[in-house]
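Technical note accompanying the year-one report. For the benefit of new consortium partners, we illustrate the data format agreed upon in the data management plan: each record pairs a sequence with a structure-token string. No post-processing was applied to the example shown here.
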Amino acid sequence: MRPRDLVRSALEFASPPSVPRQAWVLPWAEEQYPDEVGRLRSEFPDDIVTSPGLYLSPLPLVGNRYQKGVYVDEWGCRFENIHGGVIGIVRDPLIKDWSDLERFETPACTLAVDRGAVNAFCASTDQFVLAGTLVRPFERLCFLRTMEQALVDVLTRPPEFMELFERLHYHYLAEVEAWAATDVDAIVLMDDWGAQDRMLVSPAIFRELYKPIYRQYCDVARSAGKSVFMHSDGWILDILPDLIDVGVNAINSQIACMGAAAMGRHRGQITFWGEIDRQVVLSFGTLEDVRRAVGEVREHLSANGGVIAQCEFGPGAIPDNVLEVFRCWKAFDGER
């Protein structure tokens, strides 16, 4: 079975012959452990790949997203990276005062997707292809205003916030439409909604503000025949039924924060796109800890598919622990 078909089979709970896989390799790992990264890619090639961000004109970026120093993205948000290999945070917000909203414009350049180039990329691979953009209305608010102020904004909701909220939403809706017109297999949402043991905002606020716009993104994607993948860090168990309801097909989340057994209440309703605990197990655990973590995901979340073998090879991860994740999934495939 081709990787693309393998992933689709997992998403449809159609009993794929093996578990599809994807390793998230951060630049940190490539710099620190190039040999181990090469081994990982050779022994366990990905079934899922992200399309390059291919546009009719180059995006106006300054610096490098993962290098130490200052990085300015296509929106003009200024990230301060104090370490190489990971992205930093925004300390100086682009919209510090609401008067700054008068000069703010969303980046039209990200809507000018080079459809021909994206389609050529999709045709060149048998892998399942994710869109080369991330739809992140809440995180973008945090980048533009800082997280602290964004949390105040969603609670107090002055008129200026609602104007910015709508402008961000319609920009991302246009991005979804642009990428849905290409041959990619899935659109990707990415908003971190959770802290370690609770949500950053109340589920009620999520349902009132963000659930309706997520539904619009999913409707556009699904009407174009695309799946919807989503990443969100932290505790998101409270809104998992909402994500299923709006049409998210696959969720990448920190299962260890919530517990595989608790998330298992939704097995067969959504595909669990990883992950294996990167905070403790991958960074400090033994090989037996890794085996146990993978086993729990398989036991509680697999449902004739419904699982993608995924973990992040990022700062602090022990290379052999990352490799063991995929050895375990391969061993489970051999038990069929």
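Partners are asked to follow this layout when depositing records. The radius of gyration is 20 Å.
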